[in-house]
């Protein structure tokens, strides 16, 4: 019998090397390569050539009506929004987030809601004892929910327990980094163990129809720890984000085979657990200072949900040879592009100024429609003139200085009108949508036109054309 050779596996990306080295050639991480024993073959899989001829797979055509995947509503509207309407039967999800952000609290509340609705739910904790999970449930007022609880880390024992009795509708495993299987001869949390444990749980979910949720740790750069192949294996990857100094939390779908990937769910952390936020715009604009220069309200869109958030900018003369550019909640490369367009196309000199930009409330904005609001906040801060308190901004800025149209202006403007905003600086193509929403449109075809209006406002002329 040929003895299996040990493999050297990178713990950051999962790349396999023939020998140890200080730096991974695949991802560039230092001191991340660990020697691991070769994985044992999976049960029922032959590793010898010529053994086992396999089975014939039935081939089907593309015609015919597709069957809609049955879904299991979680009882939490914000969670169902992100997953696409509920958990799909037989699917497996990976939930990641910073330590202490509220992942276990979110899943405990969802499992209690499903259990109270009559579904069998199993919660397996690999990091806490059963008494600790029970104590959290009592603190959240969920102690009477009929959730089956266990504290175990062996995958074989977990699967044997799940096969006893009726198949559960939802299985939660907290977390995947603590699980281990006898099919891999390495320590828990290593790439080999995480990959083998995830594969065994995926087979269970697909064969039984149970929905399985895996909890994953997050590294310093915000990525889910472990091999990237696990994210490709699961059906959905959810990210739970938030700032430790703020009460609200954002749930995003980075991958979803059964729903959209641009929806967000907003929660507020309270003493009684997570509460759903039905009006996020009011939350993000709650502490707004209307007369402060450098503050612009952005009409953003996250999936199908319009959000109004405040973009804050501070532009001050720099005493450094290289001015500072600090960004929170937005893309720093996008800020550099907007600054270059302001200087090249509009004559706004910011090369000797420090620029600080932040999205108020801790929300991270990713869409290019924020360009116009960022430019307005920067010019307002530079000139020391506050923007109109009843105006919102959205539009993409091109390298030529033109303001380009953005998708779905109607929902943005209707949300602005609902919260009492009367005017909107927007691309010319969105003027008709503004009229339908009852908002006065300030059409901005080029960025220099907006800068000229803001300069006139700083001189006391105001924005009478809005």
Automatic annotation (TrEMBL):
RecA family profile domain residues: 68-218
GO CC terms in record: cytosol
GO molecular function, one term: zinc ion binding
Sequence positions that bind ATP: 97-104
Motif residue range(s): RadA KNRFG motif: 255-259
Region (Lon-protease-like): 354-466
Domain of life, source organism: Bacteria
Keywords: ATP-binding, DNA damage, DNA repair, DNA-binding, Hydrolase, Metal-binding, Nucleotide-binding, Stress response, Zinc, Zinc-finger
GO BP: any one term: proteolysis
Stored PANTHER family: DNA REPAIR PROTEIN RADA (PTHR32472), DNA REPAIR PROTEIN RADA-LIKE PROTEIN (PTHR32472:SF10)
Family stated for the protein in its record: Belongs to the RecA family. RadA subfamily.
HAMAP family: RadA_bact
NCBIfam families membership: sms
Domain notes: The middle region has homology to RecA with ATPase motifs including the RadA KNRFG motif, while the C-terminus is homologous to Lon protease.
Task performed by this protein: DNA-dependent ATPase involved in processing of recombination intermediates, plays a role in repairing DNA breaks. Stimulates the branch migration of RecA-mediated strand transfer reactions, allowing the 3' invading strand to extend heteroduplex DNA faster. Binds ssDNA in the presence of ADP but not other nucleotides, has ATPase activity that is stimulated by ssDNA and various branched DNA structures, but inhibited by SSB. Does not have RecA's homology-searching function. Plays a role in repairing double-strand DNA breaks, probably involving stabilizing or processing branched DNA or blocked replication forks.
Protein name, entry field: DNA repair protein RadA
Protein's organism: Hansschlegelia beijingensis
Taxonomic classification: Bacteria, Pseudomonadati, Pseudomonadota, Alphaproteobacteria, Hyphomicrobiales
Gene: radA
